[in-house]
Amino acid sequence: HVQLVESGGDSVQAGGSLSISCVASGFTYGRYCMGWFRQAPGKEREEVVAFGSDGSTKHYADSVKGRFTVTHDNAKNTLTLVMNSLKPEDTAMYYCAANDEGIDCYLGSWGPTYWGQGTQVTVS
Question: Does residue 29 have a pLDDT over 80?
Answer without folding.
Answer: no
